[in-house]
Task: structure prediction
Amino acid sequence: MKVIVPVKRVIDYNVKVRVKADGTGVDLANVKMSMNPFDEIAVEEAIRLKEAGVVEEIVAVSIGVKQAQETLRTALAMGADRAILIVATDDVHQDLEPLAVAKLLKAVVDEEAPQMVICGKQAIDNDMNATGQMLSALLGWSQATFASEVKVEGDSAQVTREVDGGLQTISVKLPAVVSVDLRLNEPRYASLPNIMKAKKKPLEEKTPADYGVDVSPRLTVVSTAEPATRSAGVKVADVAELVAKLKDEAGVL
Amino acid sequence: MTDTPFADPYADIRDAVRQLCADFPGSYWRALDRDHAYPTEFVAALTEAGYLAALIPEAYGGSGLPLAAAAAILEEIHASGGNGGACHAQMYVMGTVLRHGSEAQKAEVLPKVADGRLRLQAFGVTEPTSGTDTGAIRTFARRDGDRYIISGQKIWTSRAEHSDLMVLLARTTPAADCARKTDGLSVFLIDMKAALAEGMSIRPIRTMMNHATTEVFFDDVPVPASTLIGEEGKGFRYILSGMNAERILIAHECIGDARWFLDTATAYAKDREIFGGPIGRNQGVQFPLAKAYAEMRAAALMSERAASLYDAGAPCGAEANMAKMLAADASWAAGNACLQTHGGFGFAEEFDIERKFRETRLYQVAPVSTNLILSYIATHVLGLPRSY
Result:
């Protein structure tokens, strides 16, 4: 079967995020960008399913600025077979909203007819955690979110989900959208020969207009602010004072 | 892979190398340093990911990349806080076989070097009585029927204990019978295990840093005549092109060290507060770092230039030498500034600075010392008379 893996170019998880002076968002100019770590896990899972003989073809899709082709090349170097880049903006600061992304992905799915979409549960830049769910709704497909284990058996997939208080295993009929969580696998790093091979793998470039999707924003960012810095603590003289403070000031006892 | 004309063509490779290196943090290198142990796991990871086969042509199982790509790989290892010295020779020693070996030798050896089944990372040239004066080597290979009998001694043969094969330079015609003293030298590809069983011995030398270097002794060691690379007597010429490659790669390791020192020092100077502000706001702290940064960038330009000349097949002796000298000076200046910025903490092992400081000091001396580079520039480039 064919699998589609959407990958997002996001600010690298090692970069210390800075809010732009005008509060319209996070400063992304000249900042190291990488593949969203949850999407790396999704790519890895697709490759493992291919290595297990379940999947024949992996198509990586990225939507955003043209530079997202680097993110797609990373996916290709890890083991995806081909890639589709939908250039939706030339402004690195414009973040596409989940609904627009989901609509574009639906259009890609309509064209490619995969049996599964494996995506990261959320992107680490805005933590929306919405695209996978919206996509499954638009497609009318089953969905399995927050996967920590994926097994494909015949025309269904058994997915173990990380839920509050434990693990839940569900069976979903294919085709399905699976969103993956942190503990599903440990993504491989690309080897040098695969990085070189990836340069020759097909990468198709499209625009939202090719799919007839309107990506104009529906949300307005009112303000963006850094979290308050931690204020200094106080030293207590003894246990009695600590208990008193917890009781009277913190009100937790 | 952006569209700007100055985009780094190896940005993707650099990223992937840094990702691999992230699994080998300072604590890994510190533990090895303490025990003078070989970074077996790190070398295995690099081998498995194909980086050590970057320069081997695709036909022999490598990636067939230019020297500039290998340089980028080694630079990132050093910029990540690691050290490529344990295995960088696996990348380039094979060049002697590739350029001058027979088709049979290449087909036999290169695919196994590419996938790591064979480690070819020992290069026996230097002797106790002849350093850069290569023509003065005394190790002799005497022809005896279908074999050569080798006797002599090599020193500073790095990684000899971690190599299956060694490229060895030995005299095959006495210097007295040669027109020039660089004539009459030949290159052999020695099977280390077989040679160890027949009179070769290796003695490790402990040094101020964790680097697996040795002395190698040959006591009438017979080797098959088929181990000769190219023609007898032309060995000096064969090893020269390899030396330029080595200098360019080492220059990039220095650039990597300099970047690590500057990243580490800058982060600390921004973070460390005293007298109500970060120490990095003081120009006494800033300026040595700024100067080292400028020196590093200048050295990087020369190193990149040398690599492009090498990759274009153009003469690059002067640039390779200058790159190595400038880059070694830049990493040393950056190391010194980094240590000074950290004050007492720079001496604490857990900061890794003292380790990198010891490691980068080597490049003032090896693989060729600064004075001999200056002498090369003076005599070969400026046309001044030789002092020796």
Observations:
- Residues 78 and 256 of chain B are 5 Å apart (CA to CA).
- Chain B has 13 helices and ten strands.
- The radius of gyration of chain B is 22 Å.
- Chain B touches chain A at residues 1-3, 11-13, 15-16, 19-20, 48-51, 53-54, 63, 65, 73 (CB under 8 Å).
